[in-house]
Amino acid sequence: MTAVALTPERSFGRKVLDTLEGYVRIDLVEERMFPLSTVMRYLAVVFPVLLYYFQSSFLGAGKNVFVFMLIGTAIIAGLQDALTGLTSRLQFAQERGTLETYLVEPVPWALIPVAMNIWRSVTGAVLACVMVTIGWLLGAPIVASGIPLGLVALFLGIVACNALGTFAASFLVLFKRGEPVVMLYSLAASVVGGALFPISVLPGWIRWISYLVPHSYVISAERQLLMGQSTPGELSPLVSLGILAIFCVVTFTLGLWLFDRSLRLARKLGILSI
Amino acid sequence: MSQSEQRGDPVIELSQLSKLYEPTPRWMRVFARSHLTESVRALDEVNLTVRAGEICAIVGPNGAGKTTMFRILVGLTTASSGTARVLGLDSDRDSEQIRQIVGWMPSEDRSLLMRATARENLQMHGRLQGMPRKLLAERLSYVLEQVNLTPQTESVVAGLSAGMKARLRLARALLPGPRALILDEPTGAVDPIAAHGLLELIMELVERERLAVLISSHRLEEIEALQSHAMLMDRGRVKYDGDLDDLRQEWDRPELELVTADADAARMIAEDLRARSLDVTVDDLSVRCRLGGKHRVGAVLAGLGPLADSIEHVREIPMPLRDLIAQVYTTGAGAGGGR
C-alpha cells in the first residue's frame, strides 16, 4: 500500500460532518475513560430538583412555585455546559498538549469551537430535560403541548450560549485564561436571567442587563410554554424565540469570526501553545 | 536517469524563510504579560529543499529554530518573510491542504489521548483527516503492523512503553498516507535500542514510500546513522547545509594514535611532533596527535625518520560527529556545504 493521495478530496459539508464526528468520538472516548464520573454527572441533577421540591413543600408555596424554580434551575444547568464547555475543553487541551494535535488536522479552525462543544451541549440539554422529567414525576404540572416549542427554545439557548462560549474561547486563545470571564458571566446570568424569580422583580437599572443575556429569554419562554400561563410584563414565547434566533445568528457569526481571528493572531505571535 | 530524478522531486522547499517573534502588542499586555521582552529572530533567511525519498536532519542547540521551522510548515505559526512550500502549496495560504499531506510527529507523548486505546487514537485522527471508513480500517491495521504495534491495537496508551508510544505517534503521522513527514525529536524519551529500531523503521519507510522527511534530534549518533542530508542551525541561521560525508571531508581532523614499544620512544616521538606544531598528548606507550591542514598520516610518519621503527601500531581515529559539529559552530562557518 503506497502513501500517495489516499484521502479523497472533500467538500466543505463533508469536512463539517467529519469534524463533528471526530470530536464527538473524542468525547465518547473520554466518557468511557471515566464511566463513574459520567454516571455521577447525571445523578447529580436529581438533588437540585429534590431541594426545590422539599423547599416549596416546607414553605407551603405549592406546585406552581416548585415548577417555576425547577424550570429556571434546569435551564441554567442545561445552558451551563454550552457556555463553559468550550473554554474548559480548550484550556484542558492547551495544558495537556493536545491542542496542537487538533490544530494540525486538515479542518477549518472555525469549525473547532462548534465541534469541540457539541457533545457537552447535547448532554447539557439532556440533563435539563432529565431535571424537568424528575420534577414532573414528583408532581410538577407540566403542559405537554408546550414541550415541542420548549425544546426549540432550549436549542436556541444552547446555540446562543455556544456563541458566547466562543467569545470566551477567543479570549482564552490569546490570554490563556478564559474561565474567569465565562464563570462571571455564568453567575451573573443566573441572577439577571431570573432563574429563581421573574425578572420583573429586578430594579429597572439591572433589568436592562437581563435583555442582553439569552438565559432570560429561554427561561421566560420555557416557563410560559411548560406552565401554560403567561406572566404579566414578560415577552410572549414567540417574541422570545424570535429574539433568540436573531441573537444566535449575530453572536455565532461574530463569535466564530473572532475565534478565527484570535487563532490567526496567536499563530502569528507564536503563542498558540504557550 | 538524471541525478535529480534519482533523488526525487522536491517536496519541501524553504526559500529565504525568516521568523521574527515579537513581544505581544501593548493592548494585549493588559490581560496577560508578554512572553517576550524583546524581538527574537528564530529563523533567518533559511533555504532548504527536501526531495521525495530523502531524509534531512536538522541539528542545532535549543533555540536554533528547528521547531519554529516545523511549526511554520504545519501552519502552527506564520513566517515573517520568505516562503515555505510543500508540493508547491504555500504554508500560509494553503495551510489546510498542507496539513492533509504532511504527517507530523510531535516530540511529546502528551499529544496522544492517554486513556484511549491505540485504535481509538488512530480512528479519531483518521476521521478528522477525512479518511473513508473502509480505507481507515485497512490503513489502521497496515500502519500498526508497520510500526510493530499490532498486538497493542486495543491497549490503552497510558500502559504502553515510551518506545511504543513513539511508534504510535509515528503510526498516527503515517495513517493518512502523507507525502512528507515532520519528526520533531522522535526518539526523545526512547531508550537507545528502541531509538535505533525506530530510526531503522523510518529509513525503511522513506525508501519504500518515497517520503520526504524532516527530522530533528539531539542525539548525534542517530543523525549519523541516518546517513542523511544535514542542516546545522544556530540561532536561526544555517551553519552548514549538505551531506554528512561532505561535512566530514571538509571539517574532519582525525586523531592519529601511535603505540610504541617503550615509553622513551613515545616521549621522543611526542617531542618531534610538537616541534612540527602538532597538538600532542602522551599516555605511557601511546602518542596521540590531531591531524589536519598540511599534516597527513603519511607525511607525519615519514617525518619521524628512524623513530618510526619503534612504532608497533598505528590507528587513525575519526573525529566524533559531536566534535565535528562543535567545530563548525565555533569556527562560524557560513551556510556552505555540499548543496
Structure commentary:
The complex is a heterodimer of chains A (274) and B (339). Chain A has 274 residues and is mainly alpha-helical. Chain A has helices at 12-33, 35-44, 46-58, 63-96, 99-103, 111-137, 147-175, 179-192, 204-210, 214-227, 237-269. Chain B has 339 residues and is of the alpha/beta class. Chain B is built from 13 helices and 14 strands. Residues 1-5 of chain B have low confidence and may be disordered. Classes of the chains: A mainly alpha (274), B alpha/beta (339). Chains A and B meet through helix 1, helix 5, helix 7 and helix 11 of A and helix 4, helix 5 and helix 6 of B.
Can you lay out the helices and strands and say which pair or pack?
The complex is a heterodimer of chains A (274) and B (339).
Chain A: H1 12-33, H2 35-44, H3 46-58, H4 63-96, H5 99-103, H6 111-137, H7 147-175, H8 179-192, H9 204-210, H10 214-227, H11 237-269
Helix pairs in contact in A: 1-6, 3-4, 3-6, 4-6, 4-7, 4-8, 4-10, 6-7, 7-10, 7-11, 10-11
Chain B: H1 3-7, E1 10-21, H2 26-29, E2 40-51, E3 55-59, H3 66-73, E4 81-86, E5 89-90, H4 95-101, E6 102-105, H5 118-128, H6 133-146, H7 162-174, E7 180-184, H8 192-209, E8 212-216, H9 220-226, E9 229-234, E10 237-243, H10 244-251, E11 255-260, H11 263-275, E12 280-283, E13 286-290, H12 297-303, E14 311-317, H13 321-331
Parallel strand pairs in B: 3-8, 3-9, 6-7, 7-8
Antiparallel strand pairs in B: 1-2, 1-4, 4-5, 9-10, 11-13, 11-14, 12-13
Helix pairs in contact in B: 5-6, 6-7
Concise structural overview:
Chain A is mainly alpha-helical. Chain A has helices at residues 12-33, 35-44, 46-58, 63-96, 99-103, 111-137, 147-175, 179-192, 204-210, 214-227, 237-269. Chain A is 76% helix and 0% strand.
Count of DSSP H/I helices of chain A: 11
What sequence of helices (H) and strands (E) makes up the elements of chain B?
HEHEEHEEHEHHHEHEHEEHEHEEHEH
Helix content of chain B: 25-40%
Query: SSE order of chain A, as H and E?
Result: HHHHHHHHHHH
Strand segment count of chain B: 14
| Structure classification of chain B | alpha/beta
The low-confidence runs of chain B, each spanning 5 or more residues with pLDDT under 50, are: 1-5
Oligomer: heterodimer
| Cα Rg of chain B | 25 Å
Instruction: Tell me the distance between the termini of chain B.
Output: 20 Å
**Largest binding interface between chains:** A-B, 46 and 51 residues
Mean model confidence by pLDDT of chain A: 87
- Summarize model confidence as the mean pLDDT of chain B: 86
Q: Major beta sheet of chain B, specifics?
A: 6 strands, mixed
Total beta strand runs of chain A: 0
- Give the DSSP E fraction of chain B (strand runs of 2 or more residues): 25-35%
Placed side by side, the strands forming the largest sheet of chain B appear as 6-7-8-3-9-10
β-strand percent of chain A reads under 5%
